[in-house]
Amino acid sequence: MEKRLRVNPVACAGHGACAELLPELITRDEWGYPIVADQPVPRGLRREARRAVSNCPALALALTRVA
Amino acid sequence: MTDSLTLPRPVLAADGPDRLPRLLPAAGAVPADLGAHLDRYGSLRYAGGPGRLVAEVAAAGLTGRGGAAFPVARKLAAAAEAKPAVLVAGNGAEGEPASSKDRSLLWISPHLVLDGLQLAAEAAGSDTAVLYVQRNPRLHGRLAHAIAERAAAGIDAARIDLVPAPDRFLAGQESALVSRLTGKPARPAYRPAPGLPRLAPGRTALVQNVETLAHLALIARYGAAWFRLAGTEAEPGSMLVTLHLADGRASVTEVPLGIGLADLLGLDAAAGDAGDGTVPSAGGAARAVLVGGYHGAWLSAAEAARLPLANVALRPLGAVVGAGVVAALPADRCGLAETARVARYLALESAGQCGPCFNGLPRIAAALDHLAGPRPDQRARADLERWAGLVTGRGACHHPDGSVRFIRSALRVFAAEAGLHEQGQCTGTNPQPFLPLPAGRPASDADWS
Questions:
Q1: Which runs of consecutive H residues, i.e. helices, occur in B276-398?
Q2: Which among B26, B64, B329, B429 could disulfide-bond with B288, CB atoms 3.0 to 4.6 Å apart, if both were Cys?
Q3: Residue B170 Rama label (left phi>0; alpha psi -120 to 50; beta)
Q4: What is the pLDDT of residues B295-327, one digit of tens each?
Q5: Which pLDDT score, from 0 to 100, does residue B155 have?
Q6: Nearest residue on chain A to B188, judged by CA atoms?
């Protein structure tokens, strides 16, 4: 089953923890807000993705199943 | 449903049911009291139970008239199946400054909207409904009177509460309305899941634009085939349009979907391009046409002259029918300056919740303002393009996407004008603002409630 990272843009405060923990899939725009790669999370990065989710201070990042 | 019911012929204008207007009076704008309403349309026809109206509405092909053109039958079906409770809301917030069709409809034909709200509540199996309308004491007074007339006549199955909407561009956004109904400020919310918006755990909302509800009231009475007498196969029915002619005259009129923009604006396509990009129209020479309001798009006057008011034709050019705003820009105005003025307004109307939107839109607006001036620094154009890419698709609502669509269309349609500005020239000779914006500024964050 495919999983994707999704940002809640209202909750996100641009702390940037996600981009530090998962630079392979998340970069930051010039104001510090995350830009998530438009692709499923590869199996080899699932652990890092889960860490990025649990380390978001704003609880704004989620790993969601895509049917 | 159609097979089991004999539908009455509508008692509309003397010249027949296939003629417009359907929602507005045929002549003169006399507000309809309940008696006049029933004389014209006959009594409200309930469908007889939750979900029973869905098939007829699906056959009619009615889509939402608030801007998104979402199929109404799909929302009604989802509401009929939702458990346990659905709150039904009629959306008359109309935050778009260039649109006045919803308030006109509510003022002139309130009972048509209230009929539709009753039918939507019945379809959803709900005994209460909300009418969310822009804060306007006269309009609220009139609607309260209409609701009282119906209570006295005992024709309503669901109780209707009037809820005032703040005077903000995004207050009519579906999730903003839902926030307002849960007692929070009327700001858009992040909704990761598709489907009907949730008010609380286990409680969903069915939100329909007030004009959509009025069409629903007529489809319930006269059926899908009648509804399809106007409009096109793909986009059936009529819709209310707020028309701004190049001479500044504005009006609300009801037209069949698919009507030529040339017919709407009196654009003389045969006279064609006068060489300066302008085309003669009912209000004088037009430089360009804005379709779909401030989340819509500009078309050159020559493009508009050959296009119908239909999404299927407008989408390839990046435009949409939206909530039916059509405005002809007069030849003496600068399209870049007009767009920059509106872009500044759109930036200020960001709800200030999503980083890319509240950072990006003010910068985009400032860059466009610079491009609308004499001999702009070419870095402004590159900055604008980069920021436009950064904000698109990254908001909880469509405000950044819609604003960028509008601004990018200006850069396309007014490309020659931008070239003149680089040389320190401008075709605009009249500095008077043309596109309508609200006077003054919202005082504070508190204005969202």
A1: 301-305, 311-314, 335-348, 355-371, 379-391
A2: B329
A3: alpha
A4: 999 999 999 999 999 999 999 999 999 999 999
A5: 95
A6: A10
Residue B49 inside a domain? The answer is yes
User: Rounded to an integer, what distance in angstroms lies between the CA atom of residue B189 and that of residue B172?
Assistant: 12
Looking at the structure of chain B, the number of domains it has is: 3
Question: Going by DSSP bridges, is the β-strand pair B238-244/A26-28 parallel, antiparallel, or unpaired?
Answer: unpaired
Q: What three-state secondary structure class fits A33?
A: coil
Name which of A33, A62, A64 is nearest B356 (Cβ-Cβ): A33
What is the structure's pLDDT at B274? 58
Q: Is A12 on the interface with B (CB under 8 A)?
A: yes
Please give the Cα distance from B66 to B390 (Å, whole number): 27
User: Is there a single domain that holds both residue B300 and residue B429?
Assistant: no
Contact B284, B321 (CB under 8 A): no
Tell whether A31 lies on the interface with B, counting CB pairs under 8 A: yes
Listed in sequence order, the DSSP H helices in B125-223 are: 137-153, 174-181, 210-222
In this complex, do A31 and B353 lie within 8 Å of one another by their Cβ atoms? no
Does B7 share its domain with B145? yes
Model pLDDT for residues B238-268, shown as the tens digit of each residue: 999 999 999 999 999 999 999 999 999 999 9
Structural domain contains residue B96: yes
* Enclosing domain of residue B400: 335-433
Closest chain B residue to A66, measured at CA: B193
- pTM score, whole prediction: 0.93
Mean pLDDT of B205-212: 96
Q: Is the ipTM of this complex over 0.90?
A: yes
* B183: closest CA of chain A, how far (Å): 18
CATH number, domain with residue B142:
3.40.50.11540
Do residue B190 and residue A31 have CB atoms under 8 angstroms apart? Answer: no
How far A48 CA lies from chain B's nearest CA (Å)? Answer: 22
Domains within chain A, CATH numbers bracketed: 2-66 (3.30.70.20)
Beta carbons of A6 and B390 less than 8 Å apart? no
Task: Please tell me if residue A38 touches chain B, with a CB cutoff of 8 Å.
Answer: no
